[in-house]
Amino acid sequence: xxxxxxDTQRELPSRELENIAETLVGFERHYEALKNHLMVVLMSDxxxxxxxxxxxxxxxxxxxxxxxxxxxxxxxxxGTGKTVTAECAANRLTKEMEREGFLLxxxxxxxxxxxxxxxxxxxxxAFENLTxxxxxxxxxxxxxxxxxxxxxxxxxxxxxxxxxxAVNTLIQKIDEIRQVGGRAVVFLCTNRANVIDQxxxxxxxxxxxxxxxxxxxxxxxxxHDLQGIGLTSKELRELASLTSAGGHYGDNGYTFSDFRLxxxxxxxxxxxPNQGLTFDILKEAALVVKxxxxxx
Length: 296
Ligand SMILES: Nc1ncnc2c1ncn2[C@@H]1O[C@H](COP(=O)(O)OP(=O)(O)OP(=O)(O)O)[C@@H](O)[C@H]1O
Ligand SMILES: [Mg+2]
Description:
Blueprint: H1 2-5, E1 6-12, H2 15-22, H3 27-42, H4 44-55, H5 60-66, E2 71-76, H6 82-96, E3 101-106, H7 119-135, E4 139-144, H8 148-151, H9 161-177, E5 184-190, H10 198-201, E6 206-210, H11 215-225, H12 233-243, H13 256-271, H14 279-288
Parallel strand pairs: 2-5, 2-6, 3-4, 4-5
Antiparallel strand pairs: 1-3
Helix pairs in contact: 2-6, 3-6, 7-9, 11-12, 12-14, 13-14
């Protein structure tokens, strides 16, 4: 049963995730925003140490801080890096703390299989696994991806009774993991923060909003991914300007995944196998690959 609950179960630190983080534009910024919050939640004993160091006692504020829920909410448009950032941040923190870690990714695909009734059970299994791993003195991370499918508003008329039960279970389990001595954290990723139940949203220790790359970030990504191709700075800038918001597609610009999973593969497909990539081929590809529609 537990095996079916997860897309992946991964030991941390992972060399693969470390390598992926190096290819992400803006990862360091997101990680810096997250790191201290994660540490406070995951290593509450360090908050006590901090207090003793600066106040020679455990001040009441420590208790207040330790009441926070170990929940992090990542919201934003498709393909903006929510999932990959959660995975890489969990990995980086584990490595920096010189600890062992465990990352579980809860599959929400079950909905597609018509298993609504099992949702609560799946959530329970996931949290049980999380607590077991945390009990082994590991930093344990649960990533609930596409969380809107399980954490959406309970007030909606059409909502199935079993789905309501699933949201209740989720809230209850988030409350419970505060008790495991602060070694477990839940990341919730969603495209639509506005449909997430307020009881879930207000528990988040931190809510990070992700967006499509601006022109500078597009340029950074292109510079990284097109190394060795021999494009000039001017050509790279032109491609960044075409593909970002305000460029060829008006208000809509490419998502990170549009670049990596659609535009660059399209360009390669146009060149391969008889010629190398050129600026003209890349530009042609940019003019045919449209940005993903926005999710509001
Ligand atoms: N900051 C980034 N820099 C470069 N590439 C990125 C970045 N973020 C995401 N990508 C690329 O986009 C792909 C999709 O990212 P990810 O799955 O994390 O997006 P997401 O926001 O979770 O999307 P969805 O809402 O569809 O689940 C990644 O595999 C990666 O190749
Ligand atoms: Mg995702």
